[in-house]
Amino acid sequence: MLDIDKLRNEIDDIDKQIIELFEKRMDVVLNVAKYKMERNLPIFNGARENAVIEKNLKRLKNKEYSDYAEKFLNDMMTTSREFQQSIMGQVKVGVQGVEGSFSEEAKINYFGEEKGIVFYDEFEDVFDALKNGEIDYGVLPVENSSTGAITVVYDLMKDYGFYIVGEQCVKVKQNLIGLKGTKISDIKEVYSHPQGFAQSSEFLKKHKEWIQIPYHNTALSVKHIYETGEKSKVAIASERAAKKYGLEIVKGNINDESENTTKFIVIGKKLEYYKFSNRVSIVFSLEDEAGTLYKLLRHFSENNINLKKIESRPISNLPWKYVLYVDFEGNLDDAEVKNAISLIEEKSRYFKLLGNYKSKE
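RE: above sequence
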């Protein structure tokens, strides 16, 4: 029969070994930080971090622990990075919105808790900041599982010519947020980003008397409620935003889908891809001719490549002309991927590789 005291003693002994090894590891991380400082190297190295995680997951004997081991290793890498940040300074990452936004959460999940975050009012402001060298990376929402593509970000990717270097998915729980003591019966106006309204449409149908007022960002709408100080006004946003501004959740989890998720992309000036990168994104033009789409997309099937997403966007000032954004599985070093890309580029008037990165789906 199992003895709980004996088991706890075993855990204590293991924890003692873990903390000793943790201290040794952090001593080495300190030297890594010094090495990077001397050579002016960046703190964040996605290739190295992912390689460490993949290598150690392969060493795991009991594969049932894989998901938990991956989380443990990710947390360890984040801790190491934050320690380096405290010594060296920070990678600057731009997001649209304010503290408490889902974009901030995506940034933290991808880069860690370090403070190197810069907030901007509009999506294009993030692109401009990257172009001007104010930030090293940008984190932007590109698709929601219930409301679809955030098309303005697709258009900006084509216009600015940056690359997708990473991806992060954030589970979105929309909440009705107001001043402390606010009741449903008090509400007359609701503020949120249009995406917040769209993701909570079924709940809002039950309260058609409420005036819906669009706002730049879900978290900014919470800030607005805080500043107005009126119980007749509420916002739709995250629990994180409510805590940031000291407000309370009047009604929780009001989004239509329980598994509501937003996909964010990490953008940079340079193409960054590695052997573990498994998602490729491209954009190319489509002629207004019968069979054009089939002629181009067949190259994926013929090369045994799995398509993950197709998004069509009109070309400004060119009626009935379109570009097609395509995400597919693969790596730029794969022969099949090289062949498909080469054939599509050859047959398209406009073609751009947007990136090759590790998918978080």
